[in-house]
Amino acid sequence: MFDFEALLHAISGQTVLCVGDLMLDEFVYGDVSRISPEAPAPVIAVRRSETNIGGAGNAARIVASLGGRCIFVGLIGEDDAGAKLQAVLGREGGIESILVRDPGRPTTRKVRFVSEHFSTHMLRADWEQAVPAVAEIEQKLIDAILPQLERADIVLLSDYAKGVLTARVIRNTIDAARKLGKSVIVDPKSLNFAIYRGATLLKPNRKEFAEATRSRADSDNAIEAAAQDAMRLADCEALLVTQGEHGMTLALRDGGVVHVPALPVKVRDVSGAGDTVAATLALSLAAKADWEAALRMATAAAAVTVGKTGTAIVKPDELRRRILPHASLAAEDKIVAAGGDIDAHLAEWRRQDLRIGFTNGCFDILHPGHVKVLTAARGTCDRLVVGLNSDASVKRLKGEGRPVQDAQARAEVLAALEAVDLVAIFEEDTPINLITKVRPSVLVKGGDYTREQVVGHEIVEASGGEVVLVDILPGHSTTSLVDRARGGKT
C-alpha cells in the first residue's frame, strides 16, 4: 500500500497548467410519466437544474478540488455562455483562468435532460462549432500558454476536438515544456497520436485506443503489443488505456504493463470520469508518485466521480474513503452506539440529496444470506443504514444463549462490508424509533416477510418512500448455524 496521506499532502503543493476545450455543462433533472400528445416523445417534468464547468474545465476543477492549483487556458465566444463560464471560473478557488475570446464561434454548451427516476440521459442539446481555431486565435492561445510554463509543475492537454488544441498549439506547448523539463499528460481526441509527439503520457480510453492502433485491445497483452508501436510513433514514455469497469492498463515504453482494477461502485453518471483520471494523474505525477501509485489515486478518484451525477468534483476526504482500507476505518466512521447521534450523518447525506436506505437485523453470525440482502439493499440507495439489535434486544427475541457475538463484534463485521455505510445499534425489540429518525427513502427486508410485516412500512410509505423485499438465499440461517455449532439439530 502506498503512503496515501503523504501523496495527498504533496499534491496540495502542485500547479498544473491545463490547456483544452472549455464547455458549459447544464443538467436538467426531472420525472417522466407520460408521452407528449403533440409527438411520440416523453415529457419531462423539470424538478431542478445544475450548471457546471465542463470539458477541460472539469479537469481544472478536479485539480483544485484535490488541493492543487490550476492555471487554465481555454477559448470562449463573445456570448452569454462565455460570460457565464468566465464568471463561474472566477469564483472557483484554486483556478487561475486565462480565456481567449473568439467572436467567430459560440461558446461550447451542452444541455442534458435526465430522468431522475431511471437515472438516464434522455436527450442532449449541443451548441458548438467544432473546428480548429483560426490562425489569429491560434496565436493568441500560444501567446497565453507559453509564459505560464515556468510556473507549472506539469502540463495537462485536455483535447475534446472543439478547436483549442490545434496541431500548432500542441506542438508549441509540448516542445516548450520539454525544453523546461516539464512532463506533459495528454487526454487525446485525435486518433493520430503522432500529433502529440513528445508528450510524457497519452491517456486514451479503450475505444479511442483500439481505433487509433487498429487493434482489438481486449487484453493486457494485446494493449501492450499495440501500445509499443503507438508509443514509438508518439515518442512518449507511457500510454494509459482506461477501460471503465475493467480498470486501467498502463504500458511503458521501456517494457512492462501495470494493470489496476476498477473499484466497485454503483455507477450513476460517467460524465467527467476521463477528466478526473487525467487531472489526478497529473497531480500525482507532479508530486513524484510512481506509476502504480498515480494509477491507484486516479482509479479511486474516478470511482468517486462516477458515483455522482453530473460532472462532479472529488474532495480529499472522498478519495481517502475510497483508498484507505475500509475495515480499519469501520469502527470509527461507521458505527453508532445505542442512543448515539446519527443526525450529523443523515444531515450531510440529505444535503447532498442522497437516497437513504434502511434495513435491520440481529446479524449474530453473518452468512451469505445476510450479505445478499445487504448488497441488494445498497443497490437500491446511495447510503445504507443498518439497524442492529443490541445484546439485550437479541436475547429477548432469540432466547438464552444468544447473541453468540456481542453488539460491538457484530457491528464491526457489518461495518467492514462496503455495502454498509452506517451501523446504528438500537435497544428496543423493533427498529421503529430508528426508522422514524432516519426517514429512509427505501426500506429493505428479506423476501420471507410480506410488505405488511415489515416494521416501519407505514412510516416510509407515508413520506413517499418504498418497501423493497429481497429474495433470500435458501439454506442459510443463523439459528441453524448456531445449532450445528453447538451439536444440536442439523
UniProtKB/TrEMBL annotation:
Keywords: ATP-binding, Carbohydrate metabolism, Kinase, Multifunctional enzyme, Nucleotide-binding, Nucleotidyltransferase, Transferase
GO biological process: ADP-L-glycero-beta-D-manno-heptose biosynthetic process
Binding site for ATP: 205-208
Enzyme class: transferase
Top-level division of the source organism's lineage: Bacteria
Residue ranges annotated for the Cytidyltransferase-like domain, each copy included: 358-452
Region (Ribokinase): 1-329
InterPro entries (alphabetical): Bifunc_HldE (IPR023030), Cyt_trans-like (IPR004821), PfkB_dom (IPR011611), RfaE_dom_I (IPR011913), RfaE_dom_II (IPR011914), Ribokinase-like (IPR029056), Rossmann-like_a/b/a_fold (IPR014729)
Catalytic activity, EC: 2.7.1.167, 2.7.7.70
GO terms under cellular component: cytosol
Active site as annotated: 275
Pathway: Nucleotide-sugar biosynthesis; ADP-L-glycero-beta-D-manno-heptose biosynthesis; ADP-L-glycero-beta-D-manno-heptose from D-glycero-beta-D-manno-heptose 7-phosphate: step 3/4; Nucleotide-sugar biosynthesis; ADP-L-glycero-beta-D-manno-heptose biosynthesis; ADP-L-glycero-beta-D-manno-heptose from D-glycero-beta-D-manno-heptose 7-phosphate: step 1/4
Catalytic activity: D-glycero-beta-D-manno-heptose 1-phosphate + ATP + H(+) = ADP-D-glycero-beta-D-manno-heptose + diphosphate; D-glycero-beta-D-manno-heptose 7-phosphate + ATP = D-glycero-beta-D-manno-heptose 1,7-bisphosphate + ADP + H(+)
Pfam families: CTP_transf_like, PfkB
Keyword Transferase appears in the UniProt entry: yes
Domain called Carbohydrate kinase PfkB: residue spans: 16-316
CDD domains found in the cross-reference section: RfaE_like
Region (Cytidylyltransferase): 358-490
MF term (GO), any: phosphotransferase activity, alcohol group as acceptor
Subunit description: Homodimer.
HAMAP family reported for this sequence: HldE (MF_01603)
Family: In the C-terminal section; belongs to the cytidylyltransferase family.
Function (record text): Catalyzes the ADP transfer from ATP to D-glycero-beta-D-manno-heptose 1-phosphate, yielding ADP-D-glycero-beta-D-manno-heptose.
Name of the protein in its database record: Bifunctional protein HldE
Source species: Bradyrhizobium macuxiense
